[in-house]
Amino acid sequence: MLLFGHIGITLGIFFVFSYFAPRLKTIIDPRYLAVGALLPDLIDKPLGMIVFASTISNGRMISHTLVFSFTLFLIGLYLYDKRSDIGIITLASGSFFHLMEDQMWNTPKTLFWPLLGWSFPKDQIADGLAFLLMLLKESFILKFSQGFILEPTFIPEIIGMIVIVILALNWLKNRLSKTSSADEEIKKETTKKPATETAVLYNISFLIFGYLVVKAIVTF
Fold first, then answer.
1. Would the CA dihedral through 159, 160, 166, 167 be positive or negative?
2. What is the residue-averaged pLDDT of the chain?
3. What DSSP string runs through 6-39?
4. pLDDT, average across residues 168-194
5. For residue 145, which phi and psi values (nearest 5 degrees)?
6. What are phi and psi of 150, to 5 degrees?
7. What 3-state DSSP class applies to 125?
8. DSSP states of 102-123 as a string?
9. By the 8 A CB rule, do 125 and 49 touch?
10. What residues does each domain of the chain span?
11. Pairing mode of beta strands 144-145, 149-150
12. Could you say which DSSP state residue 65 is in?
């Protein structure tokens, strides 16, 4: 997926799940979730395709592995337990969604690194910077096949764009509307952070739900 697909679909899944499980909002920050949804690309693509282009030449390396997301999750869990800090644990969830949206199960050598070897598959890309700029440009351009039918690979981007617009309008509506004292009391009740064990169960449920949704979207 590209820019809008990663951000929009990840946030969309979060808000749908949190509608049925409101306490998820106490352990997942949507701002960090959006960053986490792009984190693997923000790390791997500049390093693998620009800094180490001559030796690695791959935009999917260490940050596209389960080891990376799981390590980030453990760090986040520790900070949540000690300081009730939800930032890192949210980044971990976002990075895990990124792996699902990239369908990393099709590249098991990277996903399960280093169990299947220490090296990463190499891409045959001559100019990594030009390729990254092209990917960024394609995030803003609709692609059609013959008969003016939208290419299947771009459908997640459209879904992501729609979700982002809906969330932006909803945020604007909430900013303009006044919150009653009753709503404030409800908000205080729902912002109490659950115990660490409960937070883990919420995260696991959220990720499983997200996996099923992403799987349905990418195989549509």
1. positive
2. 83
3. HHHHHHHHHHHHHHH-GGGGGT--HHHHHHHHHH
4. 67
5. -95, -170
6. -60, 130
7. coil
8. TTGGG-HHHHTTTTT-SS-PPP
9. yes
10. 3-127+152-218
11. antiparallel
12. S
Q: Quick one: average pLDDT of 168-180?
A: 76
Nearest to 3 by CA among 136, 164, 151, 162: 136
Extract the tokens encoding 128: 């990594």
* 163 residue type, one letter: V
Closest to 128 (Cα-Cα) out of 61, 66, 194 = 61
The rounded distance, in Å, linking the Cα atoms of 123 and 125 is: 6
Both tokens of 90, joined, read: 């949210």
Tokens of 99: 């792996």
Amino acid identity at 212:
L
Q: Express each pLDDT in 188-214 by its tens digit.
A: 545 678 889 999 999 999 999 999 999
The residue ranking higher by pLDDT, 56 or 144, is 56
Token match 């799987």: residue?
215
Q: Which residues pair with 150 in a beta bridge?
A: 144
